[in-house]
Here is the input.
Amino acid sequence: MPCLETIDLCHRYAPDEAILHGIALAVPEGSVYGFLGPNGAGKTTTLRLVLGLIRKQRGAISIFGRSLDTHRVEILKRVGSLIESPSLYEHLTAQENLALLQRIHRAPRTRIGAVLELVGLAGTCGKRVGQFSLGMKQRLGIAAAMLHRPALLILDEPTNGLDPNGIIEMRDLIVALNREEGTTILVSSHLLAEIERFVTHVGIVHRGRLLFQGTLDALRRERKPAAPVALHTADDRHALRVLADAGVDAHAGENGIVMPAMPPPRIAAINRRLVEQGVDVHAIGSAGGDLESIFMNLIGSRAA
Here is the structure.
């Protein structure tokens, strides 16, 4: 049974403004589920419905096997969330912010230090939140969401606005929460190449419709036919001549040379031939086989 499930979830903000069309999420227990799609695809609206922040119009939502309609309070006691920017008192320290929430959740006071340690903010001491970087504020927001040891954590675009180092820190934090706390995590993002690095399952939404849902391996199998081969060399002109002499149909692409899909032994033989002909080969890999390319193909083929 999924930790979170929605059935035929639909929503519109106006009679002629349909936002969601029959969203059917199934988030496995213990997973890190990436809810992916461009801005405006319906991700935040879906998460707000799941958390009861906006009134459901059509469909069903169940969390931990219970209907949100009839067990809302009981369910939300076991759910943590960070939707958009965290709500924090900037004139208080991290500890003082969490102390206020700790009383509301009736969590042990020792939990404050534990979650600050977990998110890497244990050393902030008397520093006020107003002096925190954006990444630190995001991590404090997650600490607040984890105070009551939720079984399900919902994060909406947690890497939004972060610099590359902040994105890496956030990725590592999400993985740690999942592994060390045993928390099921639903994280939305439009950064497809980044999300690929740490999720176990994905759901791809576009224009309010769920185009794909499943494991990363299942998503990669959507890449049909097999992806072309990308080749990066120190001298692409020379490499193209060598490939032409070898009977390989290759052409210059935006980021190097592109060859047809071929089995690994054939790729190895081509690499040897290039090196023997004095071409320095920097990299060989799939062209268009990353999650972002597959996503764009899904949009083109399924979303009219």
Notes: The radius of gyration is 23 Å. The chain has eleven helices and 15 strands. The first strand starts at residue 4 and ends at 14.
